[in-house]
Amino acid sequence: MREKIKSTALVLLVICSLVQSYFLIYRLPGSDPVVKTANDYVKTENMGTELEADELLYPSQITVHLGKNRHTVFYPESTFYNLIYSRLKGRQFDGFQRYPVQNINWSEIRGDQVGLELEFGKGVPVELLQKVMQIAKDPLFEGESISRLLIYSTETEDQVRVFFFSSRGDVVYEATKADLTVQDVKQQADFGKDWVSYTMENGYYIPEQPIEMVETTLLTGLFSTEQMQSSLFFDPSITRYIREKDGSEIYTDGRRSLQVRQGRNWINYTDPAAAAVAGESSPGRNALSAVDFVNQHGGWNGKYRLDQNEGASAESQTVIFQQYYGSGQYGAFPIIDQSTFHYGIISLELRHGTITGYERSLIYSIGDGSDKKVVQLEGGEKLRKRLELLSRESVIKRLYPAYLPSLGEEGLKLTPMWVAELQNGATRILPKGGNGR
């Protein structure tokens, strides 16, 4: 009997020891384990904020078509942009039919009919667009990436036509069952009647009067190399340091590498041996993975928009988030990344749904300086003459206002500029015209 009691007590002691060891290693349920695998990262505190995917999905601009080749353009964060977009997000789109894009004269429709056009840059996967708009699931449509949405009504027909344009440029999808009336479209188009008038020329829009933007200098901070190492490496203490001839610094744990370009305040992180995520991959899921990765490794410092989803395949994909600045009356505009000064984008490379590359600036904004002023970007004939000279280099595909960043002793200066995208793939910045006030 005594031996039985001893054996039972010994078993209980062993069990208690195992339970205690479990809690020491894995802490309490719901918290992170002390022991981590080689694929885990340490999340860095006090860097950027976390964002949900739907906060990064919005049009780069909304164009209002007023008929007789009269238009106006609303930019993100401006009052009427927010009003139009919020209303459209609540409408239902269903009953999709596909047509070759060349079957319809789209320039004629934009010039003659009353309507709205939402531009989504280089394309947003439908499965992501369904997160912010009431788009019905449809096998015909769901694998697509959408670059723009055109809604219009005609004087001869008491109906609304709704078209989603594929980013491939060859097909367009009509939502034959749209929860919109002719009166809905007219009411929203009326928001643009008293705003700056734009004329469509060669597929892009030119304002007939100067447009206003805010010029400012942002106060800035700088993420440290130690912060980025802690965020991106399983154990920063085992990384090796290599200094390149160009002055850049490389940190590696034998698998991952972090290149810090100190002169440019820019990092390039690569993990070429990253294991593929189990399960099916798609451009939309890859973009969500990119959002999660940024949330965990640096976060977001400011307003961003999903701008580019290139290489739309499960095997290889580039996801780029464009930074914006501004709000209120004048709207928000993109900050242009330059080869001489990298700032304004966060870029990620994915292979089979796993992040293999990550680039971003170490600079972040901590608020506005005291030198804000409103400036005017030229429009009308002055702008046309400058664009005419530029068009001799290549066909102009798109024209839009943006900020040119430059770093000085007082902070990050944002200077308003017109930017032209050319058919040959180049981007040209037009030096600022007009006066500040």
TrEMBL record:
It holds the Pfam family YycH. InterPro entries: YycH, YycH/YycI_2. Residues 3-388 form the Regulatory protein YycH domain. This is Regulatory protein YycH domain-containing protein. It comes from Paenibacillus motobuensis.
